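Curious: can you check?
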Amino acid sequence: MAWRRGDRGPEVAAIRATLAGMGLLHNIDSVGLTEPETGSALARTDAVFDADLEAAVLAFQQARGLISDGIVGSSTQAALTDASHKLGTRDLSYIVSKPMAGDDVAQLQRRLGELGFYTGPVDGTFGALTHGAVTDFQRDCGLPSDGIVESETIATLGRFSTLFKGGDVSSLVEKERVRTSGPMLAGKRIVLDPGPSGSENPIRIETPTGTITDAELLWDITRRLSERMNQAGVEVFLSRPEAMIPTDPERAEIANAFNADLVISLRLDRHPGSVGDGVATFYFGNSLGAESMLGEALSGFVQREIVSRTPLRDCRTHGRSWPILRMTRMPSIQIYLGYAHSAKDVAILGDRQSQDTIIDSVLVAVKRLYLLDADDHPTGSMSVDDVINFEQRQQD
């Protein structure tokens, strides 16, 4: 169930308490606990979702990279639950069937990363990589290496963290993997993720060749991008068959199973009645200070190439902690190519030549990522023919 302005009840009281504990809502004992019309006192279990709480929810959503609508749905509720955990308030361990998650796990990952034990993203999920880092730390410190983060492990970690502070290990590892893999696209494994099928609520888009749905448009662009990448020697996998609609966590699991180098997800924004338009690209980044350096770099390349080659409005790049960005073990980006309800965007996206330009922009951006410091091409100047010719020359 989603909670929004005007609702009341014990769940609203719990939301108020969590946000107050984060400093986003003040006077928790009074605000929202009186009847607006009469001023009479309400029981705590009948707390009101008022304007102040809505503002606090919006601030929380913006900080956490969530859709900022002021409504506490499942994603926001899960993020609130994560935020309520602080390192030391509970024991942490690796539970394969349902990994523990929360801000306390993120604090643990950051501290282990500063000491060089943890090299993954600070995603707040206690997975196998975090478990391995904990056992390595415990073993090196002479503690029982059981992977359980209890008071003794936390105390030891705290003592070391005050003495040593390293850099962003996960970013260094990401960059080194790209460097050692070389500038060639040949042999790279990329998962392309066509957005949700939209079969339950399709949006009809008029194109010069006929009427198609938003899902069909995304699938066609993804298929043709796959063909372009194959020409450059890339091994491409799709995150789903055309008729299936996996969840984003399932798509992340599929990408991990392929052991891909990159994940590129193509989406269309859907906001009925909105005046929004333009292209935006997202990478993993959260309010805890964690981000994917290569994801951010790739999203920047993609965004700049598309904007420089098409009339789509530049809605910039943004860090988000969405599942497909957070749960993949490799750099991942989500490209929102435009708004399905925007006549301006639909006119561009429905044009075959514009689609080809977007496809070429993505491929060029991927090539620029792997060129690293050897890339001296101005934005919009490298063509797909340049990329393919480069690949062929290197293979000869």
Confidence is low (pLDDT under 50) at residues 30-43. The beta strands are 189-194, 204-207, 210-213, 235-238, 262-269, 279-284, 314-320, 332-339. The first helix runs from residue 10 to 21. The first strand starts at residue 189 and ends at 194.
